[in-house]
Amino acid sequence: xxxxxxxxxxxxxxxxxxxxxxxxxxxxxxxxxxxxxxxxxxxxxxxxxxxxxxxxxxxxxxxxxxxxxxxxxxxxxxxxxxxxxxxxxxxxxxxxxxxxxxxxxxxxxxxxxxxxxxxxxxxxxxxxxxxxxxxxxxxxxxxxxxxxxxxxxxxxxxxxxxxxxxxxxxxxxxxxxxxxxxxxxxxxxxxxxxxxxxxxxxxxxxxxxxxxxxxxxxxxxxxxxxxxxxxxxxxxxxxxxxxxxxxxxxxxxxxxxxxxxxxxxxxxxxxxxxxxxxxxxxxxxxxxxxxxxxxxxxxxxxxxxxxxxxxxxxxxxxxxxxxxxxxxxxxxxxxxxxxxxxxxxxxxxxxxxxxxxxxxxxxxxxxxxxxxxxxxxxxxxxxxxxxxxxxxxxxxxxxxxxxxxxxxxxxxxxxxxxxxxxxxxxxxxxxxxxxxxxxxxxxxxxxxxxxxxxxxxxxxxxxxxxxxxxxxxxxxxxxxxxxxxxxxxxxxxxxxxxxxxxxxxxxxxxxxxxxxxxxxxxxxxxxxxxxxxxxxxxxxxxxxxxxxxxxxxxxxxxxxxxxxxxxxxxxxxxxxxxxxxxxxxxxxxxxxxxxxxxxxxxxxxxxxxxxxxxxxxxxxxxxxxxxxxxxxxxxxxxxxxxxxxxxxxxxxxxxxxxxxxxxxxxxxxxxxxxxxxxxxxxxxxxx
Length: 687
Ligand code: ADP
Ligand code: MG
Known about the structure:
Layout: H1 17-25, H2 31-35, E1 41-44, E2 48-49, E3 58-74, E4 79-87, E5 92-98, H3 103-106, E6 112-122, E7 125-135, E8 146-149, H4 158-168, H5 181-186, H6 192-200, H7 205-235, H8 246-255, H9 262-275, E9 282-287, H10 294-306, E10 310-314, H11 318-331, E11 339-342, E12 347-349, E13 352-353, H12 356-364, E14 370-373, E15 383-384, E16 387-393, H13 400-405, E17 407-408, E18 416-421, H14 427-432, E19 438-442, E20 453-457, H15 462-474, E21 478-482, H16 494-508, E22 514-517, H17 523-534, E23 540-543, E24 556-561, H18 569-576, E25 587-591, H19 597-608, H20 612-623, H21 625-629, H22 647-663, H23 671-683
Parallel strand pairs: 2-3, 5-7, 9-18, 9-19, 10-14, 10-16, 11-14, 15-17, 16-18, 20-25, 21-23, 21-24, 22-23, 24-25
Antiparallel strand pairs: 1-8, 3-4, 3-6, 4-5, 6-7, 11-12, 12-13
Bound molecules: adenosine-5'-diphosphate and magnesium ion.
């Protein structure tokens, strides 16, 4: 039988039912899958030492002959011990294995074998402890070389997998090169078959590095091409041209209770210029928590309304949608624009509560010019008359799909898209993940803000912290207390927050007014609590992570976070952003019982990072992107080999993708590349 790349692993020698199941578990079904299953690290056993020169507490490889080999049973330690005496021309040494009674069936007295592993000092001299072993042959697989280490599942050994990969490796030459020649040359990349050989069984460290570069390049390059592809597709669509209304905008700006910062003006201008075009805008507005993004959205939506188009503003929670509804009503009061609110439980239009039916009608006949809501906005029943702009607040990697889902009566027109986020995205991520978006940055904070003082509070200082909170309340300020989920069954953290609320109200601050806010409350109750907090009827608000994004209560000056080790850095930064929103000196008190080094390191980053951007870089290093940006759920490919910290490569692949796309956007001159890109897109379910 001829083995090809598509041959199922079951056809390979030594692969029976059991092994097949284990390989399938790793996602390995065909020969090609095996080749694409890269090692996650290597053991460098390429240097073979003389036994006489071995040193304790090192890793080493020797080529030796077996003089003695025997199993013995240790009743005291309840295990099998295999002992061997091995020697080369220079000396001899003992080797020991535990619970591997089959070894004497594999190795025999007189065999010449490579042993690789840890050398340890014992009372009886030096010994190899559980070394890997492999009989000496023409070419070694498991020892005396740079040995690949794969991720394996239970009961599948490194040796088995290594053996199989080595077996199919000659077929790597049948994997066609899909990177164009000139790109390989310009970037001095090795060809794909060679790279695959070297990534599995490196000749030396230099070639391993070359293989890595090549495979990383290929991976990032495809992402960049896909990004260009999306960009291109968007460019061929038509959007309504939104004209800038200067007088109206000036009146709006001068009626604000504050002056816009130069940065806010610049960003607003960037957006207004983009939506003047008939190509759909695809823009990400990144601004740290509290940098004032809402007012920019209001100004833009005002212009859209003046052009007789509708805007949709989507928020992640009901609380936030309601807050936006109120804020935007206030900001646009004198412009007299009909604004609607649509969430699962709240329906309002022109400041009045109303029915769902009336709202839906107002949206579909175009009477509602600004429609604010949650995911409820993308339900089937909602149809817009003339949607000109979609604004999405605080949701990551949203947009392309959401814009598509928001239905309207004139499907030939694609609305502009503005995505706003306070989770700062490091440059590398912005260039890959969000490569199809234009970026606007709000780096400056509104004037008069003082940096927030962040402290990590150890358990013994809890009482003092409560004293401090009491003082702040005495000075007229207000306080947030955030509780984490304590157990899995308590998915929304309701129980934790409720218990904390009761403790604080009864035992710690019986004389103050403590409030409770969590996701399980009815919408009316949530609103009542939020209003009471805004109106200063509540001094201390105990809440779950529902306050994470967006809530704006400028009088609050203390953010206290319980169980901080359970939150991500970006999330903690979001919490912190709930205070310091006015001229008062504000504080973030971070409580943790954890003494783990990792927690300490992360929380320390929160204290030292000057802004969200710095913090995001640190978080990216500490945790990787998936956890921070919800990338797993966003359809972003999990990187197999490249890292988002490979900034240089990201930049290079982006330029390479742009240069190819600018002359051949349909990739007709690169059939192999086109095929590869299609396969890649299908894998991502982007098509
Ligand atoms: P975020 O960017 O986190 O969404 P918001 O839009 O909620 O921030 O704004 C935070 C607070 O700053 C709000 O109370 C808002 O009224 C206020 N604000 C916005 N711009 C300015 C400014 N230029 N000067 C002073 N305060 C401002
Ligand atoms: Mg906001």
